[in-house]
Amino acid sequence: MIRGIIIICIIATNFIFTTESVAIVLKKKGDVKYKPFSSKDSNSDLEMSKSLFNQDQILTGGDGFTKVVYLDDGSTIKVHRESEVYIQGSIKNRRIIKQINIAHGTMKFDINTQESTNFKVITPTSVATIKGTRFWIDCRGEDGDSFIGLTGKVEVENVESGQIVQLEPNTTVNSLPDGSLTIIPTKPLELQALELLEEDAGEATEEEINNSEQPATTPTPQTQPTSTPSNSGQNTPIEHELKIKLINANGDEKELIIKYSE
Amino acid sequence: MKIYLIIIVSIYSFLFSQSIEHEKVNHAIQGNTIELKIYVDAPDREISKALLMYRSETHQTFLEQSMDELAGNQFITNLPGYFVEESNISYFFVVTFIDGGLISFPFQSPYENPMVIEVDSPQVNDSNTPKVGKNPGELLGLKSDALIISPVPNSTVSSDELVAVVSFFSMKNVDMSSIEVFFDEINIDEFVEREISHFTCNFPFSKRGRHRFRVELKNNLGQSFEPISWDFNVVDPEKTDWFSQLVEHRGRIWSSHSSTNVDGLNNNRNDLNLKYSADLDWIRISMSGLNSSLDNPYQQTRNRYAINFTNDNIKILLGDFFPQINKFSLNGNRIRGFGAEIDYKYFNLNLVRGKMVHEIQGDISDGAMVISQFQAPQDTLNGFIKISRDNYTFKRDVTALKLGMGIPKRVYFNIDMVKVKDNTLSVYNYMPGASIQISDEIWREIDDTTANYLFQIDDRDYIIYEDLKANLVSMFGSNYDLVLMDDNWGWNKPKDNIMLGSDFLFSFDKKRVSIKAGFTFSLLNQNIWESITSITELDTMGGDTNLDGKFMGLYEISDDFLSYSDFFEFGVNQVPLIPVSTAEDISAFSKIFNLPSVVYNFETKMNYAGHNIKYKYLQVGPEFNSLVNPYIQTNIREKTISDRVRLLGNRMILNTKWIRKENGIDAKDENTIFTNRYDTNMGLYPGAGLPTFNIGFTSIHRMSEKERIDEVIIEGFDGAENDTLVADNRLETLSKQINLALTNTFEVFGQQQLSLNVFNSDKADLLFEKKVLSNPDYYSPQINSTNTNFNIYSKHSDLWESNISFSASEYETSIATELHPDYFQEQNVKRWSIKLIRNKWTYSDKFSVNLTFTKGNGTVDFKELGYSISGIHKLYNIIHFNWNYGFNRKTITDSDTNLNTTFRAKLLYTI
Asked: In CATH, what class is A2-209?
């Protein structure tokens, strides 16, 4: 028990005294306030390209939206309207141990595979542990949360009951203050409502992302982001395959396959 | 005393309301020529010259370029395309007046606050990544673990959201200061914000299309990593409001106020400006307006308004516009009316219909009507009083046409016509309620000078026109007639002016050689009230008294000659009366190329072996007149040969120029002034981070044709002594000028920019010894001056900047003579200035304080202490508020102390 408290204290101290920025604001629309961890003053307007430090607070208004990217691996958090979150990150071996504390609001997470420690999302009701995935959270503060899986897996724990479930694609986990934790198939209308938030913010919807990730025969304009940030100098080539079917007068069919990469 | 006056006048003029109007150029495309125009709002002062001062942001020294004068106090010049390179260009204007005064734009501290043209790069489609220069011994293929966060490679982003973010979080040894960022291979370091482990680059000038970012970086050992580059697409921002979805539009409204107090004289000016443009895809509409508090019904308007409609081939202009028909007849002069420019690849047409000045009826209480003639009765003839109009301005109508055709930049030919005519019907012959001054001579003829309709102002006698008409009999008796004149008034005579011109352009050898030639012919009737109305009048015009059907007994007059009067009204006040020389001892070739009212221009350019050689010939006849362009210098012939060459990989630029000018080319001129001017200028730009040097030499030799004194001996009558008149019109001066400029940028306690300028000019009077012999009161034009400027600008941090400058000037004018030792004047002026700038302060984007101390010794001893405070405030990037307050205290020895203040403010709202 004592050892656990010491470890928590060390981690907390580490969080507090981290002075290097851990994330950056990549997009901002509407009313978005920001309160630095070091400031006791009231919130100020958040600006594009703003560096975020451990424990910085973000508050979005009725028309607010912001996109925050962690600097070590490009993991992205899109904070939609009427949300309040704390960005946390402790630096260890040039990696960021990431954690997001949510008071309330709606967010979309696009988390790249975490190498050393898991990415944690903490709400008043639940704790989500992520290895690498894409999912939504609708946090209703003290009234519970909904986790909607898109890709990969997320481990969701209800703080009250200690119950843990796996969030998978196309499922929704509801975590309530009474300790209940349920998994149901995702309702298309609920997902559509969330995707509308993305559209309003000028972000690519899930459908657009899926389309852009499939090999295309013709190049099409892509909407940001089409993929997660990539490591420079080691750009992974995207393989494409173009199939052309040819039929002669006798009805013989042949297929010409052109493979190329970019 | 002369210097004293010059200084006083200079300060007076500097602080007074004269100003320069200029539509700021904000953006330019790399390699494209930039046209810059100004209008000098100083109608009562004669302008000596207008200068454009400009420099690239990588240079410290401002280069100087004379501007070409257009009509109506307008000046124009072009920044050459080769100068519009990667870096932004700072510029400002300086206008000097004949009376010694000067004004600048921007008005306040132009050296410190120049305008900036942001140079946009052309989009690059080339996907080849340039090779990075390696130092000897450097490792090859050193890869980085940088993470491109934004924009995601191959993604599409809106131009207003484009920000490059690259993280080096997982790397330990990156030298962040070594990072260089290129957008389409243009270095955009000035937009880069470097953090501990990442950088952001918010580049605001991206255009729609495919683009590339490239990042170069080094580790702490100075070894280069392999550059990082990635491509992405940029689209225009999504329009949000309903109107923006229909049209792309933007606009600005700004109000400016200036208040000056010079020696107790107040001068206030308020302007309200509007600019708005909308793009409807098929047509672009732009509107602009200016409402000035200085507008006065008795002067030409200072207000401006314009609406333009433009598409790819046609431009319609309504309101105030500045057409360019011909360089000599109508070239950028303000016209109010209608204009059309139709421009297709092989054909273009310009039409102009409007007025260059509007009619002014005059002030009824200030001599709008006058008694032009008073005739007492003679024998049986009644006397008369002629009432004429005065102090008026006719509306001056302008009609112009230019038709051009050819293959673009290869062969081009145009013809143009400009017609300017005063509208005599625009001014009324009678102004109700006008007071008419009565001269002493007429006053004596009045029967009852105590009548109550007569009144006095400033000891002068007046009567209202209606009272004069009603009381004519009681004033002068029944034998006087009152005549209200419809024309031939004594004030400005109505004029008619026609100009015909043509230009021819031809280039060959892949445009390495271009030839341009043209001419412009003018006819001016200086008083169309005395135009020829019949063939007989023309036949017997001037000294020709024979009615022989020939003009001046030389040229047959056709019967339909008067049908051309709609085109041009001929008359005795015509200039030239005969547009071709009638002398028989001149060859036809010489007659053709020496027509007195013709401008001939010829220019050829050759671009070979890195040299840009130009030859230019210009001849403006002594009787050439353009009412639209009245300030063109006439009676001159000018030849120019120049060369510009770039050496050492564009690091050195050499300019050489020779100009030969003759003032007074008319055959009747017996004292032509010849000027030979040689200019050499060398600029050395060794490379980024290294000092730049610029050195220039100029020699100007002016010499009159006369080498001897003119003596006229008047023989005395009846044994009286002969009288001798002496006229010494000899002139010979030699001016030598040297200009040296040095600039350097370095880092010591922040970023430092140092510049040093030294200018020396010696104008020697080579005929002083001879001229003073013939005229002991001779005042020599000899003048020597040296000016040294030192300036250091420091950027201590993003928040603090400072500027310290020192200048010293020494002048020596004229030469002391035995009779006039006071002719020699000497004046030294030293000036110290310090400016402190605070950026992003509470409620202000920029706040600055400037302190200046000037000390003068010599002919006038004075001390001057001044300070100014200025601020720039922005509210949500929509409303801008700029203000400036200046205070100046000048103490002249043995004279009064002058306290002068200025306040200027500008409020700008951007849509």
From this structure: mainly beta
